[in-house]
User: Which sequence fits this backbone?
């Protein structure tokens, strides 16, 4: 069989216009810019407007990625959509996106792996391309976390934002931007540390679930923090070993953007100087699965990435899930 290598053909992202600053949140709950900045690094986040939904964010990010890849939407033969805030429980938001961007009647489905959703979806896209199931896969991660955020809970509402990132995955051109490998894992025994309790089959919507505010994200931040640092370090080291690379070979780390303290701790453990770590949590907050592809699209657009450089993607999220991948630019 032909030795096909999957690569990133183009990147794109989109964040909604409306910005919510720490000063804005100070007016909503008992918090301060000082607390949010020192504990999380976040200064502001972008928030969807009332008329938009998750698929709308994905439309812009997808169109930007297709344009960047110089790929017409008619060439896309699979859409994988990573989200934990789908437009509705079903059909998949991938199908809604397919309709909105005018893609043909191609395979379209959602992936739910929270902040790791993009790397999970990217890994599937790599397999699809390399075994010739599909030629051009649109991988999108979009979330409107503001829609499941409890704006009366100061322990969570300061953390999240809305946005979307996308890439087109296809046969690598000139052996560039090749997805060398990935590592995915999960520990379902810790599902209760981070979840949205109601609205599913276990607890369908009732007046009681609404009164008890169970349709909002709940998190044990402290426990998640410790597990995040450990799991992201392990995920990075595992994928590097899988690809026969060492920490020092990495030119750019693109971590999930949950908290600047988590990113700093990860960088320290990987011996990565901070100038080799892409950080945008300050301006977007945690955008779940969209964090990594937004950062990747920003890094790509910055012109700082050179051919042959090693890029490490690394994420951690609800599930609990973890995921890492290596791209040779
Ligand atoms: N403003 C002021 N005080 C606050 C706020 C706030 N917004 N939030 C919490 N506090 C208080 C607490 O009540 C607590 O007070 P107490 O000591 O009197 O009880 C104190 O600050 C410390 O609270 P901690 O929870 O211990 O603070 P911590 O330093 O752990 O920071 C945070 C909390 C930012 C949530 C951190 O734990 C974190 O980032 N966790 C990981 C989040 C994450 O990675 N999520 C994964 C992905 S998300 C996804 O998959 C969708």
Assistant:
């Amino acid at each position: 069989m032909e030795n096909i290598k999957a690569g990133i053909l183009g990147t794109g992202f989109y964040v909604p216009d409306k910005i919510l600053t720490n000063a804005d949140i100070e007016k909503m709950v008992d918090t301060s810019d000082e607390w949010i900045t020192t504990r999380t690094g976040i200064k502001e986040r972008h928030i969807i407007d009332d008329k938009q939904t998750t698929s709308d964010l994905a439309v812009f990010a997808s169109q930007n990625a297709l344009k960047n890849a110089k790929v017409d939407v008619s060439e896309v033969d699979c859409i994988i959509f990573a989200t934990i805030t789908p437009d509705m429980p079903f059909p998949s938001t991938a199908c809604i996106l397919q309709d909105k961007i005018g893609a043909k009647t191609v395979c379209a489905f959602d992936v739910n792996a929270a902040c790791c959703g993009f790397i999970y979806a990217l890994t599937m896209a790599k397999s699809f391309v390399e075994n010739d199931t599909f030629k051009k896969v649109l991988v999108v991660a979009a979330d409107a976390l503001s829609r499941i955020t409890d704006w009366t809970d100061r322990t969570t509402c300061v953390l999240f934002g809305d946005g979307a990132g996308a890439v087109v995955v296809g046969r690598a051109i000139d052996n560039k931007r090749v997805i060398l490998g990935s590592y995915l894992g999960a520990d379902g025994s810790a599902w209760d540390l981070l979840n949205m309790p109601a609205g599913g089959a276990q607890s369908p919507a009732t007046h009681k679930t609404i009164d008890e505010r169970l349709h909002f994200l709940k998190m044990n931040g402290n426990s998640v923090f410790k597990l995040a640092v450990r799991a992201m370090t392990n995920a990075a080291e595992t994928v590097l070993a899988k690809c026969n690379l060492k920490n020092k070979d990495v030119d750019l780390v693109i971590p999930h953007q949950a908290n600047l303290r988590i990113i700093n701790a990860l960088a320290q453990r990987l011996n990565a100087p901070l100038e080799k770590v892409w950080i945008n949590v300050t301006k977007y907050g945690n955008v779940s699965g969209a964090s990594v592809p937004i950062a990747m699209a920003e890094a790509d657009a910055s012109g700082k990435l050179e051919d042959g450089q090693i890029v490490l993607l690394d994420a951690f999220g609800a599930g609990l899930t973890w995921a890492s991948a290596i791209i040779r630019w």
